[in-house]
Amino acid sequence: MATSLCYAKPLKPFSLRLPQTQNPQIPTQTTQIREAETLTITGPTQLSGHVPISGSKNSSLCLLAATLLCSNSCLLHNVPTGLSDTKAMLSILRSLGAKIEFNERNKEILVNTDGVGRVEPCLEEMRKIRGGFFVIGPLLARFGEAVVGLPGGCDIGERPVDLYVRGLRALGAAVEISYFLICGNRLCKPTISHSNTEKMAGIANFCIITSDDTGLQRDGRVLAHSANGKGLVGGSFHLDFPSVGATETLMMAASMADGVTVLSNVAKEPEVIDLARFLNDSGACVYGAGSDKLLIKGKCQLRGCECYVPPDRIEAGTFMLAAAITRSLISISPVTPSHLSCLIDKLKIAGCKITRCNNDTLEVRVSAIPENVCENLRGFNVRTSPFPGFPTDLQPPTMALLTTCSGSSIVEESVFDRRLGHVRELQKLGAKIQVCGSTALVFGRETRSALHGSQLRAADLRGGVALVLAGLVAEGTTQISGIGHIGRGYENLDTKLQFLGADIKRSIAMASQL
């Protein structure tokens, strides 16, 4: 029998209905003038020098959400404070009542959640990032209830929340998803709710705000509370797919559940290990991080701790690809090579030289100059998969590289079903790519890149950085709009590339938009 644990008293009576006195926040559509930023790149160019890698965005968002579990204060070092996603997460925490202090220069953030007085974060901020959905786990675990908007983020395919919902139910939570239609700035009926597992398939795709030709928008919220009115309880749950977000959310929820929780087929990504380390340092008992099974012994209270956010493996991989596509020699640090072994292996197959030149700082020197300077880099095939497989986040910039390699390459996207949106933009530069479903056939160039400058638009984070890398080697001028997406995951990307010798400029134009 599970040991009885103490739980924080819920902030208000449990309810599975939207408050009658408050209408869902509905964005107003008014004509306004806003600033539209663009990047202008003149190529081709070669890079040289050293580039510092920022703290991991994906780890930071989850760790910030995890501070909601802890009494007293948590101090996070090496946080990428310049990212718009980080700023949105901090706004979410503030909307719940958390006190936040941060040192922009030292990349440090101090979070105290003792004053949290709400269990419903700001809906507008939730719409901006998918990582905001993490807070449902800590809120349920510590306060017994949560009212959380459906997550936003890049539109790269179906990213259902059913794993989160079914996992939380396995821990004793009652969960309901309510979504509603918005027409203009009016809430349109009917408002539909789904509250049982059998109906989850019907709402699994309503994970982001969408619109159709009628002008209607679908939006929604997840309303959850502990079914026993006391707190979550330990349980067992098998993930159908090793989702990183679902794994991390359930880890946080189980860390304060009464009893023992076993999660199987979980994600093995480094970010999961980062979270487990933070939880254990806070007093939790999490075992098995990095394997496909987690065992978590719930604790009645967690305390604040201090942690260091590891370097961003996706940013490190992106700069390795930047060196390869420009046939350059650069060094990057800090970086953990084991987190990028799959990419390193592919780049070595292509003809790049990659060496670790400083064991203390894990600095990696990327020599992308083939042994015979007349020889082109060779193409290779890529299939994305969960860690330790090839990262889906590096698929778009890798495709940009393959357009400049010899031979033909096959790129298969097996994680997200709409993560080939950058193909059309690369084709505007002259790339020859054929797409069939979630697979792309990339025709390389025997004499390096034959790309030429054009006007492009970034539609998502990783696809946007692929366009930047292609612009570095395209003949002439490439102008990229929609770079707000890039700022969600890359801190000062243009400045770092400038220090390496790239001719890249950020400009601001006034744009009228409804």
Descriptive notes:
This is EPSP synthase domain-containing protein. By secondary structure, the protein is of the alpha+beta class. The protein has 14 helices and 27 strands. The strands form 7 sheets. Strands 7, 8, 9, 10 and 11 form a 5-stranded antiparallel beta sheet that branches. α4 (about 135-145) packs parallel to α7 (about 245-255), α5 runs parallel beside α7 (about 245-255) and α7 packs parallel to α8.
Q: How far is the first residue's CA from the last residue's CA?
A: 59 Å
Beta strand count? 27
* Content of β-strand: 25-35%
Morphology: elongated
Q: What structural class results from the helix and strand content?
A: alpha+beta
Please give the radius of gyration in angstroms.
23 Å
Report the uncertain regions: 1-34, 153-159, 189-218
Number of helices: 14
Overall mean pLDDT score? 83
Largest sheet: 5 strands, antiparallel
Helix content, binned percent: 25-40%
What's the layout of helices and strands?
Blueprint: E1 32-43, E2 48-52, H1 57-66, E3 70-71, E4 73-77, H2 84-96, E5 99-103, E6 108-112, H3 123-128, H4 136-143, E7 145-149, H5 162-170, E8 173-183, E9 186-194, H6 200-203, E10 210-211, E11 216-226, E12 236-238, H7 244-254, E13 260-264, H8 270-281, E14 285-287, E15 293-297, E16 302-303, E17 306-308, H9 313-325, E18 329-333, H10 341-350, E19 353-358, E20 363-367, E21 382-383, H11 395-402, E22 408-412, H12 422-428, E23 432-436, E24 439-443, E25 455-457, H13 461-473, E26 476-481, H14 493-499, E27 503-513
Parallel strand pairs: 2-18, 3-16, 4-17, 12-13, 21-22, 25-26
Antiparallel strand pairs: 1-26, 1-27, 4-6, 5-6, 7-11, 8-9, 8-11, 10-11, 13-15, 14-15, 18-20, 19-20, 22-24, 23-24
Helix pairs in contact: 1-2, 1-8, 4-7, 5-7, 7-8, 9-11, 9-13, 11-13
